[in-house]
Amino acid sequence: MSRAPLLAPLLAPLCLLAGCAAPTLTPLLHPELEPVQRRAVRMAEEGWSLPLRVEVLAAGDPGPGGLELARAQIEAFEEAYRRSPFDAFALEVRLDPERERGRARLDAHTSRLVVEVSPSGAPLSADALLEAWAEGYDWEREGRWFEGAQARLIEGALVRDLGKLAELEQELGRELRSLELLAGSLRARAARQGEAVLLTPSESRQARHTWFRATFALYRVLNTLARWRPLAEGTQLPGLTPPAHELVLHARWTFTAHLGWLLETVVGGRSLGRLWRRDFWHRNPLYVLLDSEAPLLLPDGERIATIPKGSVGALLELRLDDDLFDWFEELDERPAPSGSPSAKLAPGVALLRTRLPALRELAEERGLSGFRAWKELWDARLKNSASFPLYHAIAGVSRFLGHTRVTGRPPSIQDAQLARVASLLRPGDVLLAREDGFLSNAFLPGFWPHAILYLGPEGEWTQLRLADGTPLGEDPVVQRALPAFRAKTEDGHPARVIEAVSAGVVFSSLEHALQKDYALALRPLLSEAQRAAAIRRALALQGLPYDFDFDFASDDKVVCTELVYRAYNGDLQFRCGIDAAEKSPQRAIPGVIEVLGRQTMPANDLARYAIYMQDHPQPQPPYPGRLLELICLLDREGDQAVLHEGPAALVTLRESVER
Question: Which one has a higher pLDDT value, 292 or 278?
Fold first, then answer.
């Protein structure tokens, strides 16, 4: 028998006499800390309608240094709280004189973040807190955070989360369509070249950032589900339990549908019989790119974190979480609690109910089966001996998103350069633009993400004549669009272009549309009547919403390149490659591509089509020959843009599409 249990009663008093007993930490109530504690609580209540308890424990008086440390630690927590996709309902700062190095841990069941630091040490950073948050997170937590909270606070949190869940569903759809389009663009390029393709640096950055944002949004959905699960399946609160059940049910299907969609986009594209062959990595380069270690760099090149190897595997493991998906099945079978939502909650509940059938259908169409996920995960482990971090990647992503919300750097294209470009442009010219920075409004893959149609001053383009001799300005379609063209633009400059942006098809100034970091001007070599007709077709789309499905078949929404496509396809034949016979040489012509049955054209493919025209000037029907002329290109070098014209512009254009 061990003597340790017998000695324990003797060792305790001896340690006490020797002064080696651990100090007793008690709650520290100090007037200098109360304001920052109240501010943190108010932040959670006003921003998220969630309760938060903030407590500082110390062994006696910590002195001015200890008080300052506690205040700084609470402030670091506030920053981490704003950025974390995971909940914490209590913060406990322990000023422990026995602790040499600070540490933080999350009690997963109570969602209490405990931070232990020495009173004479330094506070843990927000990044360190996020790491601990992710380390301890568990979707199965059982803490009933709402017990003891005011009913108005719980109702406010439900109202917020009902709306936020609908927003997350839309956000996930946009990000996954963008990633899906990139995958389709890669497959189309591989088909044209007849061999495996590598992602360009721009495509790699877009893939990573889209993956980061989509993964972050997925975990926010999972956290929303975990937040309301105890209320939805247990405690009955009049008027609150039924809407909590609706919220959890919708979160379940939002998570399932988009997790499957994300994984199918990244690991799909091969039959089960090819799972064991390494050549798949060359057929679907997104998998190997996104599953590898990824540095997170700010626009200035500073490395702020590293996403460890295996983030795709982490989601595959989550897809294979039996406890999670068994609970999903139980939730589907559980009858909804009786009762009607309050007047404040009713609109949000009604919105989710209308969206639920579409989510179930999406899960059926885009889902990745558990068997397929197991095969992919087993295959990855067999080949790579990888270990997969489940939540660590999310902490890094939250830091990345927090650092890169706004770049703040001025555009590279200067006023004088923009004036020079404006002097070269003519109504009907096609413009491509790019703005560096991680979080841009560009949704299309490749270096050139955005396409624009140039109009110019009203007195120029309205004087163009249609085929019957009618001035364009007298056409009824143009007459309806002119008031919007004449209205004040967002930046106060006169309208000069029409473009499809996230807000829809709008008129913009040349400064707003083109004064970025890179710009390309192309001129369709067409007659005046053809250019006038193209402008008329574009103006007919003014006011339509942006098409986040990137589908040229729909005519009620428009993506940026679709504006150019609908204006000029009859003349420039953007479809000649996709419509060509399987073994026709024209199959290799860039332009419109097909992605899961949807036809679209990334702006980078439009640039490639312009290059193809320079190399193949002779028509070969339906290919029309060289009908796009390269006018100029502005290329960022350092902090300034350089204007290229003539042969130098073509050399730079060839190089740019591979960036």
Answer: 292
CA dihedral sign, ordered 438, 442, 446, 452: negative
| Mean pLDDT over the full length of the chain | 85
SS3 of 120, please? coil
Residue (of 5, 61, 2) closest to 29 by Cα position: 61
Domain spans in the chain, listed from the N-terminal domain onward: 20-136, 151-403, 415-656
Token pair of 585, please?
């040489």
Percent of the chain with pLDDT strictly greater than 70 = 84
* Residue 511 pLDDT greater than 50, yes or no: yes
d(CA 459, CA 652): 33
The rounded distance, in Å, linking the Cα atoms of 425 and 411 is 20
- Do residues 219 and 259 lie in contact, with contact meaning Cβ atoms separated by under 8 Å? no
Three-state DSSP at 158 gives helix
CA-derived radius of gyration, the chain: 29
The answer to whether 83 and 130 are in contact (CB under 8 A) is: yes
Nearest to 386 by CA among 326, 312, 309, 293: 309
Confidence of residue 584 (pLDDT cuts 50, 70, 90): confident
Look at residue 10 in the predicted model and tell me its pLDDT.
40
Helix axes 603-615, 560-572, angle to 10 degrees: 30
Residues 72, 578: Cα–Cα separation, whole Å: 60
Its sign, for the CA torsion 338, 342, 345, 351, is positive
For residue 138, give the H/E element and its range.
Answer: none
Per-residue pLDDT tens over the stretch 403-415: 443 345 688 999 9
Do the Cβ atoms of 77 and 117 come closer than 8 Å?
A: no
**Strand 90-95, strand 112-117: pairing:** parallel
- Spatial separation of the C-alpha atoms in residues 193 and 206, rounded to whole Å: 22
pLDDT band at 275; cut points 50, 70, 90: very low
Return all residues near 162 (Cβ < 8 A) that are at least 6 apart: 243, 247, 345, 348, 349, 351, 352
Q: Report pLDDT digits (tens) over 302-330.
A: 665 666 677 788 888 888 888 899 999 99
Q: Are 340 and 319 in contact (CB under 8 A)?
A: no
Contact 332, 436 (CB under 8 A): no
Please give the single-letter amino acid code of residue 574: F
**What's at 571, amino acid-wise?**
D
pLDDT band at 53 (very low <50, low <70, confident <90, very high): very high
Q: How many CB atoms lie within 10 A of CB 18?
A: 8
Residue 106's pLDDT band (cuts 50, 70, 90): very high
pLDDT digits (tens, 9 = 90+) for 597-636: 788 999 999 999 999 999 999 999 999 999 999 999 999 9
How many Å apart are CA 275 and CA 287, to the nearest integer?
Answer: 13
- Preceding amide of 622 cis, omega within 30: yes
Class of domain 415-656: alpha beta
Task: Please give the sequence-ordered ranges of beta strands (E in DSSP) within 108-167, or none if there are none.
Answer: 112-117
